[in-house]
Input
Amino acid sequence: MDITLITICFAIGCGIAAGMLAGLFGVGGGVIFVPTLVLVFAFTQLDAQATSLAAIIPVAAVGAWRQTSDENVYWRGAMIMGIGAAAGVLLGAEVATRLPDALLSQVFGAVLILSGGEMIVSASRRLKAKRASAPE
Output
């Protein structure tokens, strides 16, 4: 990647957008960083995913710190989940390095679509249940 002032400014802008989405929705790395690195900066899928893992460290740290001040972080659950995720990322990274880039991109896209679809369906069900239980 050719690092110019424009590239740096655009990367900072993408970082700000990802940080805002991370703070608002708890997402960032996979949802914003990876597609941006692939589509805008011409990274391979594997390089984008690996770079995203590193870039998300400060995002997660600052987000957790901010949410801790409002007592929204359940640290015991986070640590338990984090231990599992640390073990899982070793396996996931190994599999990712063995897959062809095109297949890795397709699997990544499918995961995003399925996750988004599940969130839409769940939100629709909650809204429907809320409307059904509301007094008339």
